Amino acid sequence: MLCHGFIESVTFLPANQSPAFTAIVTDLEDQRAGAGTGAEQGSEKRLRVVWLGRRRVPGIEAGTEVRVEGMLTQSHGLPTIFNPRYEIISSQEHE
After folding, report:
1. Torsion angle of alpha carbons 42, 83, 10, 27, nearest 10°?
2. Domain ranges of the chain
């Protein structure tokens, strides 16, 4: 699945826990074929992305515009992608 949106928040785990860096992406544009039913239009979508084994991911912070891609699963009530491929979208691409 390929999605586009903005980082809403990031979660830092304490040093005594296994490393994992988590971010919530919102206002997604779902780019898979056939997506976008009437019930989904106009509603805010949220996606959790988790990088296992990492405490930080360079460039990923609140407000960053990103594209993420990976295998979608459901975890703790949110659609989740573990260890996604990602691209940070610069504001210059929109000009």
Report:
1. -10
2. 2-94
Q: Give the pair of three-digit tokens for residue 91.
A: 């504001």
In tens digits, what is the pLDDT along the chain, a chain of 95 residues?
A: 899 999 999 998 899 999 999 999 998 665 554 444 333 444 568 999 999 999 999 999 999 999 999 999 999 889 999 999 999 997 655 55
Question: Domain 2-94 classified CATH 1.10.3720.10?
Answer: no
Tokens of 56: 């930080």
The closest of 15, 89, 6 to 55, measured between CA atoms, is 15
